[in-house]
Design brief:
Blueprint lengths: L6 E7 H10 L1 E2 L3 H6 L2 E2 L3 H11 L7 E7 H4 L3 E5 L5 E5 L9 E2 L3 E6 L1 E3 L2 E3 L5
Antiparallel strand pairs: 1-4, 2-7, 3-6, 4-8, 5-6, 9-10
């Protein structure tokens, strides 16, 4: 059920992760900015999202574990197809605020081998 997770996850480029660490917050990538929210996933949605959208990427990717309680009511679960509800971070009153570094509890580099992404957060 949506909203029961302790953590949600952000698939992040190395560049975005570096920006988040140096600035203390990040607005995400172009897709996030144009949509007006930060795209996140529940843990069981991370692998399918990686396989669907990042299989052929040449970029270094990181998986960020984000504490739900740190996002407050700015975290909204929205249906993206008939069955899946994905967590999206808008910020208070859907104002589109950046993802704060303080909400990130872990970050791990993703490895791609034999068309499978791995890191300990996915185990």
């Amino acid at each position: 059920m949506a909203g029961e997770e302790e953590f949600v996850y952000r698939i992040s480029t190395a560049e975005e992760w570096k920006e988040l660490q140096s600035n203390g917050s990040v607005y995400g990538g172009e897709l996030d900015r144009s949509a007006g929210f930060i795209h996140l996933s529940k843990l069981d949605q991370v692998r399918p999202t990686l396989e669907r959208f990042f299989q052929n990427t040449k970029m270094e990717l990181y998986l960020l574990q984000v504490a739900v309680k740190e996002l407050g009511d700015g975290l909204i679960y929205e249906a993206v197809d008939g069955t899946n509800q994905f967590p999206h971070f808008f910020g208070p009153s859907r104002s589109f605020v950046p993802l704060p570094l303080s909400a990130v509890t872990k970050a791990e580099k993703l490895s791609l081998s034999d068309a499978q992404f791995t890191c300990s957060l996915l185990n």
